[in-house]
Design a protein that fits this description.
Elements: E1 3-13, H1 16-27, E2 34-40, E3 46-52, H2 55-62, E4 69-77, E5 92-93, E6 99-107, H3 110-119, H4 129-144, H5 147-154, E7 160-168, E8 174-179, E9 184-188, E10 191-195, H6 198-202, E11 207-210, E12 215-219, E13 224-228, E14 234-235, E15 240-241, H7 257-263, H8 265-278, H9 281-290, E16 295-299, H10 301-318, E17 322-326, H11 327-334, E18 343-348, H12 354-366, E19 370-375, H13 381-385, E20 388-391, H14 404-420, H15 431-453, E21 458-463, H16 468-482, E22 485-490, E23 507-511, H17 517-528, E24 533-538, H18 542-547, E25 550-553, H19 562-580
Parallel strand pairs: 16-17, 16-18, 18-19, 19-20, 21-22, 21-23, 23-24, 24-25
Antiparallel strand pairs: 1-4, 1-10, 2-3, 2-4, 5-6, 6-7, 7-8, 8-12, 9-10, 9-11, 11-15, 12-13, 13-14
Length: 598
């Protein structure tokens, strides 16, 4: 989705352009099609440069890095309202060019507001909702001559979930508003900045103020003031040191963030286990789950796949029924039957996914269901609005495909299920070592396999029981970074239709535990007797090995460790196929790291 950044310095800064371009680069992981920067001089001259293209292209064409000024705004746009075009790129100017602003999120009544504002005589240059925000503020500013008052009044015009930054040429300050999309403030030496994303701030400072929905702020180079957007009441909130590090925003010698994040999984799991040992959060969390009427596990994409695995862990370890639901389906499927004592465990890396936030909004409005969460980004909407949350302790995940956060979601589900079962049923401490061994032992064969599978455009991943969600995740990762058509399915379901696809050599990747080998080998036989190519990922097991064309052995013995270990070769397969096809796995086309739209 879009990303925004704004910064105010004490005096004209010759490096403003370079800092804005650096911020733009650190927002790229959200996915984007246009880039824009506005630099404002001490005298209030607004220099606006923007266009469609990658940061380096727009920088090369318009010299963004050389821009100078005392304050600056940056925006990366992922098109929703209006085609990718220079006129729709952000930031935007108001009619007479003294206000400049940029947004992140969606203003859903853009079309009617554009008509209304045009009728009122506004000059609207494009179709983008960010431009509508600037005009909404302008029309109230023209009336009130007071920017905070105009910002408060504009809230009444704008429907949707958004955050924006806006600045007037005559005032050396930036205003920022949070109404449903992420926003963080950074307080540094000689500057204050704001951004939709932590990485762009962490490059400059780790003193962070988290902004909540319904708040706006004014900041100059040496101070900031926070207000309630409805009442205008000032809010006191001091900066805190962010636990996320700027190292996570660097590749550290790896070719891509994706492979860096795959390889750092043993360390991230160890950090999570350390956190769980030290903190009192886990008992509090499990207590809330025990009291749940019904338990729903809610997430989108990869996080939903973790919920699928989590439901098996809860069932098998703690005898607890947990219903996994894609966040986007939760309200439609279960909304009318939710009860106040139901618990929704919302799982999200970003903590900003709109499908998840919609569920929170629905439950809050009706006082139904209590939201708990697993979340990676601290200070995110989900972390602030859930009753209780457990952090994934992964540091920032930059690559668009989720890898280390998925693994830590699995480990967290396992730890919670183990605690619900009274503890001691699973050896959690062994997991970092077994991931390390899995990386070392499977990577060479997976690299070869990736080459062999490069010409194939279509295959299946099948799981059974505990590995059900891993099959879905393997397929999603491959679709996402290889642009292959892949499906994940429950292996018993394959014979009910999809088996018809199989032709000699058609690849089907099975993921199995040893305990399920008998059942899975029967499913394998259904494919192999039609001369499909069976690739099995499982701990060593003679039956499975015998019927598979290729066998990727996982160095694990514990049944509950298999989903975690099996994830690693599937991540590696997607990565090496992506690179083999010349795709940049960190920035797959069409998608974005944080999906803040419906
Ligand atoms: C896939 C991927 C997405 C996200 C999904 C939810 O690799 O990253 O499927 O898992 O968009 O995002 P979060 O977890 O931030 O809610």
């Amino acid at each position: 989705m879009c990303g925004i950044f704004g910064i105010v310095f004490q005096k004209e800064h010759e490096d403003l352009g370079r800092i804005m371009v650096q911020a733009a680069y650190s927002l790229t992981y959200r996915g984007y099609d246009s880039v824009g920067c506005a630099a404002i001089s001490t005298e209030g001259r607004i220099d606006l440069r923007k266009d469609i293209g990658r940061v380096e292209e727009v920088d090369g064409k318009y010299g963004l890095s050389g821009m100078r000024g005392i304050r600056g705004l940056v925006q990366l746009r992922w098109a929703t309202f209006g085609v990718p075009a220079q006129r729709n790129s952000q930031p935007h100017l108001d009619c007479d060019g003294d206000l400049v602003g940029a947004h992140n999120g969606n203003v859903i009544n853009t079309i009617s507001l554009r008509e209304q504002f045009s009728e009122e005589g506004h000059t609207i240059r494009g179709e983008n909702d960010g431009e509508i925000i600037v005009h909404a503020v302008e029309r109230h500013f023209d009336r009130l001559s007071d920017l905070p008052g105009a910002i408060m009044a504009a809230v009444g015009d704008l429907k949707g979930d958004y955050a924006y930054v806006i600045s007037h040429q005559a005032e050396n300050a930036i205003y920022a508003v949070k109404m449903g999309s992420s926003l963080y403030l950074g307080v540094g030496e000689g500057f204050v900045c704001v951004s939709s994303d932590l990485p762009s701030i962490l490059e400059l400072t780790s003193n962070i103020v988290t902004i909540r929905d319904g708040e706006f702020l004014r900041f100059s180079w040496d101070q900031y003031q926070l207000f309630d957007i409805h009442s205008g009441q000032p809010i006191e909130r001091r900066p805190e040191r962010s636990p996320h590090t700027k190292e996570s925003a660097h590749k550290g010698g790896h070719a891509h963030f994706m492979i860096k994040e795959i390889r750092e999984q043993p360390e991230k799991v160890a950090n999570l286990l350390h956190f769980l040992e030290e903190s009192a959060e886990l008992p509090r969390f499990t207590e809330a789950l025990r009291k749940a009427g019904r338990l729903f596990l809610v997430g989108s994409g990869t996080s939903y796949h973790a919920c699928l695995v989590g439901s098996y862990y809860f069932n098998k370890l703690a005898g607890l029924a947990a219903i996994p639901v894609p966040a986007g389906a939760m309200v439609e499927q279960y909304g009318d039957s939710l009860r106040p004592d139901d618990v929704l465990l919302c799982v999200s890396q970003s903590g900003e996914t709109k499908d998840v936030i919609n569920v929170l909004n629905y439950c809050e409005r009706r006082r139904l269901g209590q939201a708990l969460a697993f979340v990676n980004v601290l200070g995110s909407t989900l972390s602030m609005r859930s009753r209780n949350f457990l952090p994934l302790v992964c540091d920032l995940e930059i690559s668009v495909p989720a890898t280390k956060t998925f693994t830590n979601q699995l480990v967290l589900f396992l730890a919670v299920a183990n605690a619900l079962a009274g503890g001691g049923k699973v050896n959690l401490q062994a997991i970092p070592g077994l991931i390390e061994d899995t990386l070392a032992q499977t990577e060479p064969r997976i690299r070869q396999l990736a080459q062999e599978l490069l010409p194939v455009n279509d295959f299946y991943f099948l799981g059974y029981g505990l590995t059900h969600g891993i099959a879905y995740e393997g397929a999603l990762k491959t679709k996402e970074v290889v642009y292959n058509h892949c499906e994940g399915a429950y292996s018993s379901e394959f014979k009910h239709g999809p088996l018809a696809i199989v032709y000699p050599g058609y690849p089907v990747i099975f993921i199995s535990t040893v305990e399920d080998a008998e059942m899975v080998s029967s499913h394998i036989n259904e494919v192999s007797c039609r001369r499909g190519r069976v690739i099995t990922v499982a701990p060593p097991q003679p039956l499975l090995e015998k019927y598979s064309s290729d066998f990727i052995a996982l160095p694990v013995e514990d049944y509950f460790h298999v989903p975690i270990a099996a994830t690693i070769p599937l991540q590696l397969l997607a990565y090496y196929m992506s690179v083999g096809r010349g795709i940049d796995p960190d920035f797959p086309r069409n998608i974005s790291k944080t999906l803040t739209v419906d």
